[in-house]
Q: What sequence folds into this?
């Protein structure tokens, strides 16, 4: 059972990253390959505010989230909006370039060493059936579920949430409803950036933060999104948990060096066998 | 209220519209012409989906030529499309609900906390009224994929109507409808015009146009070739040659 508990913890992070991928994909049709860098920046900013500036946890989270929300806005408004030829391949290439730039900036500011972020809760080990889980891991799982419920409620019941869904479905129809599609695109990057930062912030006390972490966080979140079905909110959540648990299981029975490979084996399997993912819908295109 | 002056637009080497100039005021107006005449292109220019190379679009004394579609919508012009353009992921009622999105300007925080009770009551009342007018109430909880075509056409009209527009652009509203549905649609459009909302429609069904439109503009190869009442247009030799022929379509 222990692999299950640790799998759910890492799966929570993959799920948050996957949901970030899906939100941007749904409103823009893009894969944002800088999503993993948002995770790193979240962890780095928590380190800066808590350890370097000595702020309390509440202020540290608040500053981190506000800054990352702004990073998301800046990302879309400055770097993606002014691309002259907005083909999907061009815009995705821009996100890859920005991921590399953000990684470089993170290295220059915070250095190459792994940074330790202090635990947000008193460190305890909770005994469960067949294993145990740390209090910090419980925080990660609870925050992930809470965020998923809040986001789901937002998308389902609020006018702005419905505007996001409408933009996903048909941007022309959304426009004639008076929805500012550009604003929704910008907000989708802001929310995805916030989600990445949230993932990075809550996992930082468990894994430490290194400027290169974004590559693996991003690719695993992407694998989770593909596994659940690109664009599916609950698919992203479920895909994240499933990927975490499978990864944990194989790390348990095989040398841990193979652990990271499983995310990509699963990614390939899904692309070969069921490209729409477990919960993805095939979208009809008018020709 | 809507005034187009010297509107021209080209796509590559093709001139889709050339110096299109006309104005419409009250009531129901129609834009007719053969396929490829530039009618839908002109609708796209008026509603902001295309920006003209030359010319101006003035609506209620404001230059809207280079405004974004959502801004034009909020200034009082709504529209329907030749092909249905309803949002498939939400119910038909929710489509109407999204149609009031910009006009009502919901407070983000109040919306999240569900404190917009008065706004919701007002919106729901408006949705009920519009659905009654367009005879679509019983289909409201279906998603667009599950409802008949004629109902969806009326829902598109309802969505165009729900934002209290001053002008509605209807792109081939009667296309694909049977005679009973056309008759019903004609009555609805008449009622809408009776509420003081101006209509500009693109339509190929001349009996539908003649029964409703008080003013008709005819386009051919992107140019205005005639304008006037339907009777005047029907007798115009150039229109007869380019589009109508000797008998009504």
A:
């Amino acid at each position: 059972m222990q692999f299950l508990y640790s799998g759910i913890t890492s799966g929570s992070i993959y799920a948050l990253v996957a949901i970030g991928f899906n939100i941007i994909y749904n409103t823009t049709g893009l894969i944002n390959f800088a999503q993993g860098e948002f995770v790193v920046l979240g962890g780095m900013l928590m380190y800066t505010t808590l350890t370097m500036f000595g702020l309390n946890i509440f202020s540290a989270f608040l500053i981190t989230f506000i800054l990352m929300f702004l990073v998301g806005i800046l990302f879309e408004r400055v770097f993606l909006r002014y691309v002259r030829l907005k083909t999907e391949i061009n815009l995705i290439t821009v996100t890859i370039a920005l991921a590399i730039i953000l990684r470089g900036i993170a290295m220059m500011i915070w250095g190459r060493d792994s940074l330790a972020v202090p635990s947000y809760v008193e460190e305890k080990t909770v005994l469960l059936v067949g294993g145990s889980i740390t209090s910090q891991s419980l925080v990660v799982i609870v925050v992930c579920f809470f965020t998923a419920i809040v986001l789901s409620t937002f998308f389902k019941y609020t006018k702005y949430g419905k505007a996001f869904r409408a933009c996903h479905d048909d941007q022309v129809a959304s426009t004639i409803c008076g929805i500012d599609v550009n604003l929704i695109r910008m907000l989708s990057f802001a929310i995805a950036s916030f989600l990445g930062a949230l993932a990075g912030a809550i996992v930082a006390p468990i894994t430490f933060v290194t400027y290169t972490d974004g590559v693996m966080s991003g690719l695993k979140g992407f694998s989770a999104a593909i596994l659940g079905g690109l664009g599916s909110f609950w698919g992203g959540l479920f895909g994240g948990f499933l990927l975490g648990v499978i990864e944990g299981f194989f790390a348990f029975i095989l040398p841990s060096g193979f652990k990271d490979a499983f995310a990509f084996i699963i990614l390939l399997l899904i692309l070969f066998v069921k490209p729409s993912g477990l919960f993805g819908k095939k979208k009809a295109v008018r020709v | 209220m809507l005034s187009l002056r010297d509107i021209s637009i080209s796509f590559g080497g093709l001139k889709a519209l050339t110096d299109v100039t006309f104005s419409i005021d009250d009531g129901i107006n129609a834009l007719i012409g053969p396929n490829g005449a530039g009618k839908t292109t002109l609708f796209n220019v008026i509603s902001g989906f295309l920006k003209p190379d030359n010319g101006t679009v003035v609506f209620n004394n404001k230059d809207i030529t280079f405004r974004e579609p959502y801004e034009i919508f909020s200034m009082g012009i709504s529209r329907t499309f030749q092909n249905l353009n309803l949002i498939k992921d939400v119910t038909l009622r929710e489509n109407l609900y999204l149609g009031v999105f910009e006009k009502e300007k919901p407070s983000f925080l109040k919306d999240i906390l569900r404190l917009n009770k008065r706004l919701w009551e007002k919106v729901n009342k408006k949705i009920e009224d519009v659905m009654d007018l367009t005879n679509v109430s019983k289909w409201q909880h279906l998603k667009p994929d599950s409802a008949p075509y004629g109902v969806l056409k009326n829902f598109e009209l309802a969505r165009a109507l729900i934002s209290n527009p001053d002008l509605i652009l209807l792109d081939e509203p009667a296309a694909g409808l049977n005679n009973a549905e056309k008759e019903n649609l004609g009555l609805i459009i008449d009622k809408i015009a009776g509420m003081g909302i101006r209509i500009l429609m693109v339509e190929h069904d001349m009996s539908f146009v003649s029964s409703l439109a008080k003013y008709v503009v005819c386009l051919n190869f992107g140019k205005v070739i005639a304008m006037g009442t339907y009777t005047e247009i029907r007798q115009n030799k150039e229109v007869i040659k380019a589009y109508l022929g000797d008998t009504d379509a």
